[in-house]
């Protein structure tokens, strides 16, 4: 679906990669071309504007990684921007109730692929060993009910028996009570669509949402309809408490940009992509994977990520050498604090440590919360260079000045200095016994 965009972007990057050093003007021009490529691919203008502004900011703020070509760094920035635009790392998945049955409401225009998607979801859930009930509330098109029943058979799940003449709200109530009585884990309500946005359709879907109190209300939109799909999503979102989007026909050869705007315009997560007519043609939406596919430059992204890591490693090694000599000043402490934050703060860091339970209590006692990390960084940055090098010179008047600068009490500065001394002592001890201390501290 993104082929044209992929081609355009690769040609931008190809042109850049011929050059060794990139000036600000080069990057500016490249981003302008990326901008045009995104607009031509039908990405909504405000979304593109935002994307370019952020990319520009990142390009100017990015540490220069000498081991990678500047052009590759631009690829990485574009990739990061796409991932962000598509909703960030990590797939959303369905929000299943702890108290079954989970109610899933499907909404969307006629022909968007709503009924097919309902069946695809049913199949996916039944493969996860969930007992699923499919119910069609489409009283306008009797054939729709038959279609869902047929699809249910294909998916190997149950469908609600068809009772002629019932209203959509009544069918919804019947589906819910059947699901409860018969111990279904999930009940999927497929509402009636219309060919265009239509008040009666919206009102009916809203009424059913009020009856069913769905845990998930998914809008199914045809990604090939471009900006219309975005408008549809927005209109539905105004009337229904949508929780996510499913974009169908991602296997088609449309321009695809609407899909890229969808998340940013509606604020709703894209949860699934329909990738074929077949009943198993539903992929969990993964922003990183889609961005990688659009750029078609997965190896470069990986390379830049690795180089950025190496940069951190080189810094860490330099720090280790200084530590081994017993040097640990407040600048190094500030570096440590910043690194801790980058690694997802204390929580993220602790997840990486083996034997973490032992240190958890100590850390809690030492008050190393993320907020505290920020305040400590503020204190250190309020010090002069000399003070950071030689904390011993910090007498009362200097401490008062720093406290005012960082907006904290003097007592907090004293705590930080004490902590710094303890860390410096600990590092000294570790460097003396040849690194065994590190292992002891981590409880390995
Ligand atoms: P509804 O009116 O919204 O319920 O739409 P349907 O579920 O009946 O789908 C309309 C047509 O689109 C059917 O022929 C489906 O097979 C087809 N369709 C649905 N999803 C996809 C998809 O992700 N890819 C492709 N290629 N076709 C799809």
From TrEMBL:
One of the record's GO cellular component terms: signal recognition particle
Main subcellular localisation: membrane
Spans traversing the lipid bilayer: none
Family listed: Belongs to the GTP-binding SRP family. SRP54 subfamily.
Cross-referenced SUPFAM superfamilies: Domain of the SRP/SRP receptor G-proteins (SSF47364), P-loop containing nucleoside triphosphate hydrolases (SSF52540), Signal peptide-binding domain (SSF47446)
UniProt keyword annotations, A-Z: Cytoplasm, GTP-binding, Hydrolase, Nucleotide-binding, Ribonucleoprotein, RNA-binding, Signal recognition particle
Protein name according to UniProt: Signal recognition particle protein
Pfam family, one: SRP54_N
Assembly and interaction partners: Part of the signal recognition particle protein translocation system, which is composed of SRP and FtsY. SRP is a ribonucleoprotein composed of Ffh and a 4.5S RNA molecule.
Positions that bind GTP: 108-115, 190-194, 248-251
